[in-house]
Input
Amino acid sequence: MEELVFPEPDRDKIIQQLEDLPIYGRDLKTRRNFACVMCGRSVLPLGRLPWFGAPLCRDQGCEITPVSKITQIFVTPYGRAIHQGILRIFCRTLEKERVLVQRQPLIDRAEVIADGYLDLLKWQRTYHDYDRIKNPHIYEDGAVTIVPPRKLDEVLAFRTHGMPVPIDPTRSLPSEQALLLRRIYKIGPQALTVPF
Output
């Protein structure tokens, strides 16, 4: 089986990428009193237009960005770690030609999300090491005995308001297996060779 490659992103770079997410939509100058589709305030005299019929005001909370620009930041060996369902928990969305989400809630949570992403990658490596060392014959055939966490919501509990909270991805596993995985997470694969 081909060895999985786990990215080793820099925490500060992830935070910076979230803060630098592009603002979607072209500038809109208007003399008519359109209401912002996100907050309901007036768009006069300057706004932003993601597509015809969806004016936005210039408030930071109404700035939007494409989902694809967010998901490309969170790459793992198992695919993208964040998806629309997670984003909809704490961001408002607009949908027509594409799915757009608020930027500001992501920027406000950038540090916690970056930490969660790094934690997810570490847990994925932990599960991988467990199978690679504990079950080498099954691993060589490309099978796994325990499925690793694949998305951010498996290591972070997202809430509508407030910051995400870290959660233990081993909580649903048998206690002995969960304990061993937590040891590998803390001290590395050598935990499998050291007696409890």
Remarks:
- Residues 156 and 166 are 4 Å apart (CA to CA).
- Residues 11-108 form one domain.
- The chain has two domains: 11-108, 111-192.
- The mean pLDDT is 93.
